[in-house]
Amino acid sequence: MRAFHDLRLQGMLVGLAECLVFLSYQHSDGRFHWFLHFFVGAGAALSLLALHTYLTGHRTKLLLLWMFLGHMLAMLPDILFGLADVPHQPWMDIFLLHISAHFLPGRNWSWYALFLLSLASYFAALAVTDLAPTGPAGGISAPSETAKGTPRAR
Amino acid sequence: MVPIRRYIVTWCVIAVGFGTLLAISEYYRNPLNDPDPAQQRTGMLLAPRAERAPTITDVHELGRRRVILFARSLKDQYLFHDLADQADLAEAAEVIVVTVDGSQPIITNGISAFRADADGELARAFGMAEPIDRGAPIGYVILDSEGYIRYRTLDPLFMHHGRELRMMVGATP
What we know:
The complex is a heterodimer.
Chain A: H1 7-27, H2 31-56, H3 63-74, H4 76-84, H5 107-131, H6 144-147
Helix pairs in contact in A: 1-3, 2-3, 2-5
Chain B: H1 4-27, E1 66-71, H2 83-92, E2 94-99, E3 111-116, H3 121-125, E4 139-143, E5 149-154, H4 162-171
Parallel strand pairs in B: 1-2, 2-3
Antiparallel strand pairs in B: 1-4, 4-5
């Protein structure tokens, strides 16, 4: 698991997994749904991580994995639809608004904007953490001494 | 130095990257698709007893589910990529095929009736959406055994989506 803390390795594995998921959607002419649930799931993960980082000062080392898990949660009804022959039903909104999310005005462009907003909030939380008098441990994009858990010199 | 600039640059790269991918995806949409992608292949049945289906003369047999398949032309074509889908669908529901030119597929077994719909009146009566290219819709409507519309979608690739179609028919009472 520790090896997975390497952002490049994480990026390769998650990137590969996302490519496979995208191809499965593409195969059934469903690119729209891949983008939709990616923006919703990854955006939700980023928002929660931003909140977590801001409140605790700790950065996750599994950023991309959390985004991927968010995406998987958002698309779970599609997995049930494709693999278990379960049609969509209104209660499936418990999976990050899987049903209602389709009907947001502006469709995927609106979710894209919200995704970017959540990404900005996450980066803002990281920046606030960087500025804190006693810097927290970890971090995926901070300098190496921060990643090792040593408070950074100001 | 706080790496704020690094965050901004990363954010911009991600924004441009996903924006470009999304724009390409939108640009290369199938012109036979629904202009509103959210309305296509929702995978969710419509509410029961909400919308009565128009009558199709001499094939309006109550008590059995019906699938009305809309295509532009089926001349020299198979209805489904996998012929087993046609057999399975015919077993689960009454199958009615509507084409613009009145053509029939190569294999007609299991199909209850054919209708020509040159002026699109039948497609409009069933509430089929107009595709991006503004031509005749390609897709299907599923009616429950009481004659109400329970599912309606454009699907220019329905001939490859037999499993999905059977699933939606199976979920229809």
